[in-house]
Design a protein that fits this description.
The protein has 13 helices and 9 strands. With 376 residues, it is of the alpha+beta class. The strands form 2 sheets. It has a 6-stranded antiparallel sheet with strand order 2-1-9-8-7-6, sandwiched between helices. Strands 3-5-4 form a 3-stranded antiparallel sheet.
């Protein structure tokens, strides 16, 4: 027996000897279901079995919530695509706050058209009255969520939050009007406060830049047609459905609907610096650079988009994973676990759509980081 043990230690090759020395091998992972293998393409850019297993865990591992769709693009090509039962390639998934980044691109196109200026005071007449301190709020302050307005995204009880009141209670018929009426609680530019109300103000500014009409249908058509002609159609985002309130304002902070593939196309568009697959520059590359520049008030946020930058001053856990992926990574993030993770250094765009609690999202993100770790 001693001879066998010495031999096993020296050679580290004979399984029975390892077992006899008390060193049982690690259990082999269970075989992958066929649907996990079928989800990965031949041009995935990573070991197919490893990628299939990592994506399978997003759907099957306990404690992550419900994953409904995963869509992975690598260097502009589809690397993996998988859906949970009841969902498929044609399913439109609600964006929640991922819509904010679409609104930021809308503002960027209007700036490029000469209709808006991000460095000027926000074009809101009520704020420009003599003695109103809100006159100091610029368009960039709104884009970076540092307007100083009293917009509390989450409340306790929930119906007291600014978001719930705007979307479902006293502000629901004219959301931008309600959001614009709120007073300052901080000096413009000083404090980061994430707010869906702020993005609806941006959407209202966009509508007013495109039409002087106050007619809801006219406002709705002006914004919808602009987005379709200038953004969605060139990107091939055929499933995109934006929602509007009763006043005709785009609910640009939370309510758009699209397929997983179309969310991936939008992520790839940003990764390409604002270019469509045809090579057409839809929004200036300089605007995308500004979107991805850390805000002076919060290093992990840009223009309506989350950045994978460390931030030591956070009250809550970081929404991404700066310890596990390049700092150049950025993400659209929506309520209950909607993500478009874009890593330019790795040439990767990963879409995960589903339903997860705050605790489950933290665990789920680590699984998403495992997918990204397969790419150098």
């Amino acid at each position: 027996m001693m001879r066998i043990c010495r031999s096993s230690i020296l050679a580290a090759a004979i399984l029975p000897a390892l077992i006899s020395c008390g060193e049982a091998p690690p259990p082999a992972p269970p075989p992958l279901p066929q649907e996990a293998l079928d989800a990965v393409t031949d041009d995935a850019g990573a070991p197919m079995d490893q990628l299939a297993r990592q994506i399978d865990e997003l759907f099957t591992k306990e404690g992550l919530g419900e994953t409904r769709a995963v869509f992975l693009m690598v260097d502009g090509k589809i690397a993996a695509e998988r859906y949970a039962e009841g969902y498929d390639a044609d399913t439109r998934h609600i964006s929640w706050s991922m819509a904010k980044t679409v609104t930021a691109v809308l503002i960027g196109m209007l700036v490029a058209d000469g209709l808006l200026d991000e460095d000027s005071p926000a074009p809101i007449p009520d704020w420009q009255r003599s003695g109103d301190p809100r006159a100091e709020i610029t368009l960039e302050h709104l884009l970076q969520m540092r307007s100083g307005l009293r917009h509390t995204e989450a409340g306790d009880p929930p119906y007291e939050s600014s978001e719930v009141r705007m979307l479902f209670l006293d502000g629901r018929d004219d959301m931008a009007k309600w959001a614009k009426e709120q007073p300052l609680e901080a000096e413009p530019g000083e404090k980061f406060e994430y707010s869906s109300n702020t993005t609806v103000i941006l959407a209202d500014i966009a509508a007013n830049a495109l039409t002087d009409s106050k007619n809801p249908d006219t406002r709705r058509r002006a914004v919808a047609n602009y987005l379709e002609e200038r953004l969605f159609a060139p990107l091939g985002m055929t499933s995109m459905v934006p929602e509007f309130d009763a006043s005709g304002t785009l609910i640009g902070g939370s309510l758009m609907h699209a397929s997983a593939a179309d969310y991936a196309k939008f992520g790839e568009f940003l990764r390409a610096g604002g270019k469509a697959p045809s090579g057409e520059q839809l929004v200036p590359s300089g605007w995308v650079e500004k979107m991805l520049r850390p805000s002076p008030a919060s290093a992990h946020y840009g223009y309506q988009i989350w950045l994978n930058r460390p931030n030591a001053n956070l009250e809550w856990p970081h929404p991404l994973f700066p310890d596990r992926a390049p700092q150049s990574l950025f993400s659209l993030i929506g309520h209950m676990g909607q993500y478009v993770l874009v890593s330019p250094d790795q040439k990767v765009t990963l879409v995960r759509l589903g339903h997860s609690t705050s605790e489950e999202r933290r665990a789920m993100l680590q699984e998403a980081a495992d997918v990204l770790a397969l790419y150098p």
